[in-house]
Amino acid sequence: VMTSRRFVVLLAPVLLAAATAGGVAVAEQTPLTFGVLNQQSAALTAERWNPILEYVGSTSGVALRFRMGATVQDTNAMMGRGEFDFMFTNHNFRPEYDGVGYRAIARWGGDPIRMVVAVIHDSRITGLGQLAGKKVAFPSRDAFVGYAVPMVAFKKAGVQVEEVFAGNQEGAMAQVKTRRVEAAAVNSRFLAQYSEREGVEFRAIYTSEPFPELAVVVHPRVPASVVDKVRQALVAMTTDPIAGPVLEQAKCPGFEPATDRDYDGVRRIYRSIAQ
Amino acid sequence: VIRSLRTLLLGLTVVAVVVVTLCDLAVSVKMRMDTAESRLAENTQRLLAASQPLLLNALVVGDLASAEQTVRNLNAGRVWRRARLYEADGRTLIFDASPEERGDSGAPTWFGRLLVLDLSEARVEIAASPTVYAVLAVVPSEEEVERVLWQETRTMLTLAVVLLVTLAVLLHFILIYGLRSVRALGDSASRFGAGDLTVRMPETPLAEIAPTVRAFNTMAQNLEGLMVELQAKEAANRQLAASVEQSEEAILTVDLERAVKTWNVGARRLFGRSADEMLGHSVARIFDGHPGEADALAGRLIETRPPERLEFTLTPAGAATVVVAASASQLHDEAGRHTGYIVVARDVTTLKAAERALQQAKEAAEAANRAKAEFLATMSHEIRTPMNGVLGMNDLLLASDLTAAQREYATLVQTSARALLQVINDILDFSKIEAGRMELETLAFDLRATIGEALKPLALRAHEKGLELVSAVHSAVPAHVVGDPGRLRQILVNLVGNAVKFTGRGEVVVRVEPHAGAGSDLELHFVVRDTGVGVPAAKRDMIFDAFTQADSSTTRRFGGTGLGLAITKRLVQLMQGRIWLESEEGWGSAFHFTARLAEATGVAVVPELRQPEGLRVLVVDDNAESRRMLVEMLGAWRFAPRAVDGGRAALAALDQARLSGDVPGLVITDHEMPDVDGITLTLRLKADAALAAIPTVMLSSSSLPQDVARARRAGVGAFLSKPVTQSELLDAIMSVLTPTLEVMVEAPASSTRTTAGHGQHGLRVLVAEDNVVNQRVAAGLLERRGHRVVVVGTGRAVLGALESQPFDVVLMDIEMPELDGFEATAAVRAYEKEIRSGMRPVPPGSAYAVAHDNDRRIPILALTAHAMKGMEERCLAARMDGYLSKPVQAEMLDAALAPYRPRSQPVAAAPAAIDRGAALRAAGGDESLLAELVRLFLEDCPTRVAELRAAVAAGEPIRIERSSHAIKGSVATLGARIAHDLAAELERAARESRLADVPALLRALEAELDRVGGALRRVTHGDGLAISTSGVDVL
C-alpha cells in the first residue's frame, strides 16, 4: 500500500510537468532523477529547483524529476547508492564516494567563495592561534566552507577550538555579534551581506583560498548525448529570455560549464579532513 | 378573569420580560451564529495556510507519515470535524486524519438542534509550483460554536431570570405603596357617603393619585359648603317667613283671581280682620268701607307698583279712621309664570300729618326769606337814593365857585361819601352773598381787556408809590371767555388794590394761566403777587373771614372794611373756584384763585394780525416778570423774542448780532434799568450805523412829559406807560414797524374820562325822577355836560312832555307815583306803535317826531337804585334801551348817552377839533416833530378813510374794526378827541357787530375828520393860537 501511494505522489509532478509542456516535449522515456543536496528545507528546495528542472526538461527534451532525502545523511546515502541520475552537490568529492563515479558537468554561477574566520571589530584576537580553547561558531557540521575548510585551517595552525553549531551562516554571525562566541567561520559572501544589513563591523583574522560553488554532477550510466543536452540547457539559461524569470525565482545566477578538475581544492580539503 | 390590579401588573410584566428576553436571545444567537461561522471559516483558512509549508516539506521528500502527523497535530484542538489529504487530482485519498469521535460542546442536544450552522469543506493545494503534491480538504467543527453560543445563552437566561425576580419584587412594593392611597380614597369616599362631611384625604406626593385626591377634597369642600349654605338659607327663609308673618306692615298675597292666599299679623291689625276671615276670599273685602267701589279699588291696588302708592282711608270697626298707603308687586313662580301679587300696606296717618306740618313750615320760611330779600332790596334802594343826592350835590358844589376852605371841605365830603358808598356796597354785596342772592352773569367778554381795565386805575396808584404793576396773561388763555366780567373785575381790583396798598416798594404781578389739570372746561388760575408786608402764618386762615385783617392795627393803618377778601372769597366760590394765600411775612404775598369760565364761541375773534412772522425781537428789562410776560406775548404773536436782563446785556447781544449779521428787527426796552437805561441804550443803538434802523419801543413806569420827550429825542419809536395791555403793545409794535406814521401812544384812560363830555353836546334830555334831590343831581350832571334838561316828577308827566317837546333821550326812574317807569315806557311804546301803523299822526315838534326823523324809537334809559341782578333784564324786557344804576356816576352817564349824540354838529357849538397842547405833549414838546406828524397824517388820512369806507360797504366787521382802530390811533396823537371818540365808538360797534349803527357813525367820523383836517392845515399854514375859556389850548 505504502509503495503504491508513494509512487503516485512521485508521479504527480511529472504528469503535471508533461501537461504544462503543452505536448511539445512528450515524455518519451522514464524521467531521470535530479537530486539536490539539503541546503534548505525540502519545501524551499523543491520550490527553487522544480521550475529550473521544468525549464531544462522542456528545453533539452530530457525529463528530469526532482528528488531529495529528508536529511543530508539520507540524501548522501541515496547518492552513495547511485539513486540520482543528476545531482547538485559537492559531497561526491568526499573520499568515501570516490567509487560511485559522479563527475562534474556544470557549476552554480558567480564568483568563487572563500571561508572567513571573523571576530567582532574590537576583539583583541588577531590570529587563529589565539582562538585555542575558545568558542568558535560554525553553520553546520555538514557545511563545506562553513566547517570542512576552517577545520583544515585550525588543524594546520594546530589549534583546538570549542565548536558551536549555529545551524546556518547567519546564525553563526549572530553568535559573534552577541559575543557568545569569539569568532565564526562563515562564507565570505554572507559575511559582507550580514555586516552591511545589521550594521555590525567584523574583522577577518583568516581568509581561505577560493572554492567554486556546488556542481551539477552526473552518474556514469547516463548517456553522453543526454548529458550534453542537459549541460547545454543549463548553461544557456543565462542567455535565454524565457529562463530569466525562472532564474530570478530560484535566485540563481545561472550555470557555467565545469569539470572535476575545478574541484581539486575541494577534494583536497575533504581528504585532509578524512585523515 | 383577574381581579387584582397587582396580579395583572405582575403577570404582564413577567410576560413582557420573558418575551423581550427570548426575542433578544434569538436575535443575539442568530447574530453570533453568523459571526461564529465566519470566524470558523477564517480559522480554517489560517490553519490551512500555516500547514502548507509543513506538509510540503514532508511530501517533497515523500514522508507521508510525517504529513499525517502534521495534520493531526494541527487538528489537536478538534477545530476540524473532518481532515483528509488527497492526491493532486483531489479525489484519490492519501489519508484521512479526521478525529475518531465527536467532541462534547457541553450544550444540550436540543440547543444543537436549534442551531443551523452552514460549515462547508475547505480545500488547499500543497504545491511547490508548478508541482502539486497533494490537496488537503477539511470541514470545520461546529462544536466550538455550539459551546460559545450555549455559554452566552445560558448567561443571558440567568440575567433575565434575575431581572424578572427583581422587577417583580420592586413592582410588588411599588403597588403596595401606590394602592394604599387608592384604598384610602375609597375609604374616605365611603365615609363621606355615610355622611361624614368633614372627611378629607391627606395630600399624596404621587402625581397620578394627587389630582384625584385634590379633586376629592375640592368636591368634599364644595359639598360641605353647599350643605352649610343650604342650612343657612333654610334658616334665613324660616326667619324671613317669621318676619313677614310678624311684621308690623300689612303683608298679604293674592292669586290672579284676587283671592287672599296669606295674611300676616300686620294685616290683621291694620285691616281689623283675622286670617280666617280673609283667606280664600277676595281682597276687595278690605274696601268694605267704600261700598260700590270695592272691586274698582281692589283692581287699582294690585296695579299700583312701588314706589307709587295707593292711598285710601279705612275705618275699622270701633276705631278711628286711618290713612293707608299700599302697593302691590307681581309674584312669579320659579318658571317665571305670573302667579299673583304681594300687597304691602301701611298706616300712614301720622306721616301725612307730619308732611302737612312740614309744608306749612316751608312756606313760612320762604315767606320770611322773601321778606328778607325784599328788605335788602329796599335797603339798597333807600341807602343809594340819599347817597346819590349827597354825591351828586357835592359834585355840583365842587363845580361851582368856592373858596379854598369850602373846596377842601367839599372834597372831604366827597371822599367820605365815596368811602361810605364803598362800605355800603361791600355790605350789600356781602349781605346778598350771605342771603344766597348773589347771582353771576353769563356774558362773553374779552378777558385781557377786562383785566387791563381793572388794573388801569390801580396802576396810577401803583406808580405814585413807585411800584411796578405787571400783568401777564398766558398765551394759552383764550381771548374771549364767558362769565361775569364785572365780578371778575371786582375780585382783581380787590386783590390788586390790597397788594398795592400793602406794598411799600417792589412790584405787583398779576398772572393768568390755564389751571393745570383742568379738563375741557376752562379753569383759569390767577395769581396776584406782591413784594409787600406779607401775612403772618397765624392770620392766613382767617384772612378770608369777614371783618378780619392781618391785625387790627392794619385796619387803622390802611383803612378798609375788612369785607373785601370775604366778598372775594365768596365770589371765587361762586365761580366754582377756590382762593388761597401763599405768603412770607416781610417778603410779600401771593393770592391765588381759580375760576371756572367757558371759552366763548361765536365771538368775533381778534383778526389775525399781519405782522412779519418770526421777526427777531430783543426784549430788554431788568424785571424778570416783565421780561417773561413780554416774551410770552411776543411768542403768542409768532415773533421770535429773545430776552436780556439789562442795557449792558442788550448791547453785548447786539454787538454779537451785528457780527453774525443776525440783527433783530425790533427792540423793546424798559425805561429805568440799573446799569444802562433804556434811553442810553437807544442812543447807543442810533449811533451805530448797522443798528440805527432797528425800531425801538420803550416801556416806562413814568408817563412824565419830559421823559417822553427825552425818549423821543433819543429815537424811541413808541413810548408806553406800564402796565401795558397786549392791545397797546401790539399797536405800538405795528406802528413802529410800519413807519408811515410814527405814533406816540399814551395811556388814554385818564384823558378820555375827563374830556368825554365834550363830544356829547346838544342832547335834549327828559329826566323823570320823583326825588327832588335826585332831580337836582341829574339835571346838574347833564347840564354840566352841555345837555339841555327837562325834569318831570311822574310817569304821566313823561307822556305829556314827550308829546309836546322834542327830546333825544329819556332818563326814566323806575319808582314813581301815578305811572311807574315800566308803565310809562309801555305807554310810550304803544304810542309809537300807533304812529307807525298810521293810527295816529306824529305830533309835530315832539320827541316822537325827533325819533321818527332819526328812524328809531325814543331812547329810554332806566334810572334805578335797585342794583340787583335781574333789574337790567327787566328794564330791557320792558323795551327800555339801557340802564343806569344810582348813584349815577359821570362816566356811566357819558357812556350811556354816547350813542344818542346828534348826527350833525352844530357849527357854532362845536368844540375844538384838535387839542394842540395834547398833541405837542405827545410830540415831546417838539414843534418840528408835531409839524411832521401833521403832514404825515394829512397824507395818510384819505387812504385810511377810503379803507374804512370800503370795509363798511363790504359789511365786514373785522375790517371795520381794524380800520377804525388805526384811525383812532393816529388822531389820538394829534389830540383830536372827538374824532378819537367817534373812531373808538365805531370800533366798538364793529366789534359788537352792531352794523346798524355803523353808517351813522361813519358819517359823523368823516365829518369830524374833515374838521380835524381843516384845523391841522391851519396849523401848518402858521395860524396863531387861540385861548379857550376852559383854559385848554385850542386852535
**Structural class designation of chain A:** alpha/beta
Q: So how many helices of chain A?
A: 9
Strand order of the largest sheet of chain A: 2-1-3-10-4-11
Q: Can you tell me the residue ranges of chain A where pLDDT is under 50 for at least 5 consecutive residues?
A: 18-28
Which residue ranges of chain B are poorly predicted, with pLDDT under 50 across at least 5 consecutive positions?
Answer: 555-559, 603-611, 739-760, 903-910, 1022-1035
Question: What oligomeric state do the depicted chains represent?
Answer: heterodimer
Q: Tally the helices of chain B: what do you get?
A: 32
Any idea what the radius of gyration of chain A is?
20 Å
Helix content of chain B: 40-55%
Helix content estimate of chain A = 40-55%
Assign an overall shape of chain A.
globular
How far do the termini of chain A sit from each other? 45 Å
Beta-strand percent range of chain A? 15-25%
Question: What's the count of strands of chain B?
Answer: 28
- The number of strands of chain A is 11
- The overall pLDDT of chain A, averaged over residues, is 83
Distance between the ends of chain B: 140 Å
Q: Class by helix and strand content of chain B? A: alpha/beta
Task: Give a written overview of the molecule.
The complex is a heterodimer of chains A (275) and B (1035). With 275 residues, chain A is of the alpha/beta class. Chain A is 41% helix and 19% strand. Chain A has helices at residues 2-20, 42-60, 72-80, 144-157, 169-177, 188-198, 224-236, 244-250, 264-274; strands at 32-36, 64-67, 86-89, 103-108, 115-120, 135-138, 162-165, 183-187, 202-207, 215-218, 255-257. In chain A, β1 (32-36), α2 (42-60) and β2 form a beta-alpha-beta unit. In chain A, α2 crosses α7 (224-236), α2 packs antiparallel against α8 (244-250) and α4 (144-157) packs across α9. The radius of gyration of chain A is 20 Å and the shape is globular. Chain A starts with a helix and ends with a helix. Chain B has 1035 residues and is of the alpha/beta class. In chain B, the strands form 6 sheets. In chain B, strands 10, 11, 12, 13, 14, 15 and 16 form a 7-stranded mixed sheet that branches. In chain B, strands 6-5-9-8-7 form a 5-stranded antiparallel sheet. Residues 555-559, 603-611, 739-760, 903-910 and 1022-1035 of chain B have low confidence and may be disordered.
